[in-house]
Amino acid sequence: MGRDSDSKIVPLPAQPAGPFQPVTVRRGALGEGSQRPIFASSASYAVLVDGLLMPISQQANGSNIVFETADGHEALDFFHIELERHDVLDAEGAPCESLHDPFGETCVPILSFGGGHGELRSRLRSAAALVVDRCQPIDLIRDGLDERGLQLASAG
Fold first, then answer.
1. CB–CB of 103/110 below 8 Å?
2. Residues contacting residue 95 through CB under 8 Å, at least 6 positions apart
3. Pairwise CA distance, residues 107 & 138, whole Å
């Protein structure tokens, strides 16, 4: 079933950025009963939310999905699992994607802000939804994760 599983040790600069920046996801961030107390991923990996894959870095909200720094760590050890076909795996209770060819077919659609001002446009669409609803699926997912983060912060 699995074709390849490897480990990659990535040296961390003082302020990591890019696809290897660690992102911490706290319990409940991706929905009720999701993942163990804390799980970490690299920024480039996508998790399954509402039936769609979305890069974890684009879900960071500063409360229950947060970027981490390299404080106290010289390197991170990443584990990649590549299957014959792209799929969703259980990673510490969170539905994460397997390693895949970026030009290959994905198991479910991947949503992304597409860089640039995509996230800003998404937040503006959400704010304008009170008057005119132009929200897209990616906006609804981000809004739901933000709301979940606020609820968990007020409960904890």
1. no
2. 30, 47, 48, 88, 89
3. 18
Tokens 């912060």 — which residue? 153
Which residues contact residue 12 at a Cβ distance below 8 angstroms, ignoring those fewer than 6 apart? 20, 70, 73, 74, 75, 76
What is the reported pTM? 0.66
Low-confidence ranges of the chain (pLDDT < 70): 1-17, 32-39, 70-73, 115-116, 119, 123, 130, 156
Question: Which of 146, 156, 124 minimizes the C-alpha distance to 30?
Answer: 146
Q: What is the pLDDT of residues 49-59, one digit of tens each?
A: 888 888 888 88
* CA atoms within a 13 Å half-sphere pointing along the CA-CB vector of 43: 14
